[in-house]
Amino acid sequence: MISYKKDKKGKIINQNYIEKLVKAHKSNWLDRAKKKTDKYRTAGKVTDKNGHIWSEIKEVFMTIQGNKCAFCETELEGQNYGKGVHDVEHFRPKNRITKWKPSKEFNSLGISITSTTNIKGYHLLTYNLLNYSMSCGPCNQTLKSDRFPIKGSYKNHMEDPKAEFNDEEPLLIYPIADIDTDCEELICFEGPVPKAVKTTGLEYERAQTTIDFFRLARADERSKLFKERSEVILLINIFIGSESDTSKYDDLVGTLISDTSKHANCTRSYLELLKNDPVKAKEIFNEARQFIATYIPDSELG
Ligand SMILES: [Zn+2]
């Protein structure tokens, strides 16, 4: 997982930036979204059953994220064909909060999570641009859905995620714009395996929760992700693993570590390791090679 805080030209991605993209894509969307939000404010809930308009601007988020899943960094289908497959994800759920069941391993870490019994969703964030991202089917439909674990108290009348983002001590990381901590200050990789950068405190807990929530460290459940990360490690080794002068591969490396390349956090972490601990990097390369050589898609397991 990485954050999308700057575009390719180095421009800061913030609310203003996203609004401009939305306006250019669909000139009346912001006005229509405001009218809907005003209606929900009066009613105290989301009143539309049909006629939702967030899908109309999914291309904006596909562009910001370089067609990658916001949470697992897998590559999504491009805009031409992906529009019909992927949808906008609400970071804070709009209708209700449902219970997240952490893994046994997560429970053993002793991280406390606020109860979600009878918690309404964030109806005033249904059309808030700082509550959106694009994500893949497994991350969005299967794993995320209406779940939203936090440590503090639910403030489901929240209207301004920029000002109020941290009030609830959210345990998931929001990767777009300037409202949350940079993902890579919280999560890094050892080979294909994500891990928390910190060892204690809320930042450690947020990293552990995000990793467990999206099953990012589970090679058995998300074998496709592990295969893709292993392929990047293999690719780096094929080109620059044993080279003393790596400058001739700068173009390739530049592409692999760019925000819009899949598994950029894993790639950046591996390149650091290659520099700082080549013996460990070699060990991980051999494991990645072995993983790919024996890879079986999980639909064929059992
Ligand atoms: Zn994903």
Mean pLDDT: 93
Structural class: mainly alpha
Radius of gyration, Cα only, in angstroms?
A: 20 Å
End-to-end separation in angstroms reads: 30 Å
Please estimate the helix content: 40-55%
Tally of structural domains: 2
- Bound molecule kinds, no repeats: zinc ion
Question: In terms of per-residue confidence, which ranges show pLDDT below 50 for 5 or more consecutive residues?
Answer: none
Overview of the molecule:
The chain has helices spanning 15-25, 29-43, 58-64, 79-82, 104-107, 137-144, 161-164, 183-186, 201-213, 223-240, 250-256, 264-276, 278-293; strands at residues 88-90, 96-97, 119-120, 132-134, 187-190, 193-196. With 302 residues, the chain is mainly alpha-helical. The relative contact order is 0.13. The model has no long low-confidence stretch (mean pLDDT 93).
What is the gist of this entry?
The chain is 41% helix and 6% strand. The chain has 302 residues and is mainly α. The protein has a two-stranded antiparallel sheet with strand order 1-4. Strands 2-3 form a two-stranded antiparallel ribbon.
Question: Any descriptors?
Answer:
two-stranded antiparallel ribbon; 6% strand; 13 helices; 2 domains; 302 residues; binds zinc ion; mainly alpha
